[in-house]
Every structure is written in C-alpha cells, then in structure tokens.
Write a structure and sequence with these properties.
Largest sheet: none
Number of helices: 8
Number of strands: 0
Strand content: under 5%
Structural class: mainly alpha
Order of helices and strands: HHHHHHHH
Shape: elongated
Helix content: over 70%
Radius of gyration: 19 Å
Length: 172
C-alpha cells in the first residue's frame, strides 16, 4: 500500500475518533461543544496530529519529503479525520442527543438577545433579523457540516505550513 495512503488512513482514523471524544469531553464538561474556547483547543490537537503524520511519513521515506508528499499526507489525513469526527457528531446530535442542538440554538439566541443593540448598531436591523432566522434553522446536519468545513480548512493550512517546514531531500 502506498505510504501516503497508509499514513493518512492510520492517523486520520485515530484522530477522527480522538476529535469526537474531545467533542464529547467538552460537552460533558459543561461547555458549548460547538463554539467554546475549549472546543477551539482541538485546533492545536489537529495541528499536532498533522505534524506527527507528516513526520512519520518522512521517517518511513528515509528522511525524504517533498512539499507535495507532505501536503498530500496532511490534507488526506485531515479530510479523513474531519469526515469521521463530523459523521460521529451528526449521529450523536441527531439520534442520541438531539437536545444538544436545541441547547446550542438557545445559547445563540441568548447571545443575540443580550447583544441586540450592539449588533444592530454594527450592521442593521435586517442583518440582525436574518441572523436570528438562520439560528432558528440550525440542525444537526448544518452543525456537523460547519464543523467539517472548518476542520478541512484548518487542515489545509496546517498541511501546507508543515510540508514547507519539514520538506527535505537527502543527498547521497
């Protein structure tokens, strides 16, 4: 099996499951598992996972790493991890604990109500009403999709940066 695929499958699967466990840990610790500071710390975890995956690929390739190999390893690992994490988040919030979505919606509505004047002053009444309407339409699917998109975007950034930092060609 191709080393890039093998490394991506192993790290993507492990860190996809770790990402979901982190999500549950944040929730059971009493924080908003979708948009809290504790949830954003998972960004550090995914950066470390990407670094580790690319490093392990480079180690298995006799210390050689091109930018393309590093980027492909990191990106594919992050896409798989995001797909696993967000699929599990969707299953959990749709089938096991749908109240979690309703709690998130309530939290967003409370934030909007508490900051209504500042939000309207910063934009306008129409934008505020549009945001409130969008909050009312939040579902398990939209939350999981939002998390997936952010994890993939973050994964791309980490993959490119780490690939540049770790690229190396041994000269014999």
């Amino acid at each position: 099996m191709n080393k890039i695929i093998k490394t991506s499958l192993i790290f993507g699967t492990v860190f996809g499951i770790v990402g979901f466990v982190w999500f549950l840990g944040v929730y059971f610790a009493g924080h908003n598992a979708f948009y809290s500071f504790a949830q954003k710390l998972s960004l550090i975890m995914m950066g470390a996972a990407t670094l580790w995956a690319v490093w392990m690929y480079r180690s298995s390739n006799e210390g050689n790493l091109t930018f393309g190999e590093g980027a492909l390893t990191g990106i594919s690992m992050n896409i798989l991890a995001a797909l696993i994490t967000c699929s599990l988040i969707y299953i959990y919030t749709y089938y096991i604990n749908p109240d979690m979505v309703q709690l998130h919606i309530l939290t967003l509505k409370q934030y909007l109500a508490a900051n209504k004047k500042a939000l309207i002053d910063g934009s306008n009444e129409t934008t505020y009403k549009g945001t409130l309407k969008a909050v009312n339409e939040v579902t398990s699917y939209t939350l999981a999709l939002d998390a997936f998109i952010w994890k993939v975007v973050e994964g791309f950034m980490f993959s490119f940066l780490i690939s540049v930092a770790l690229r190396r060609k041994n000269i014999v």
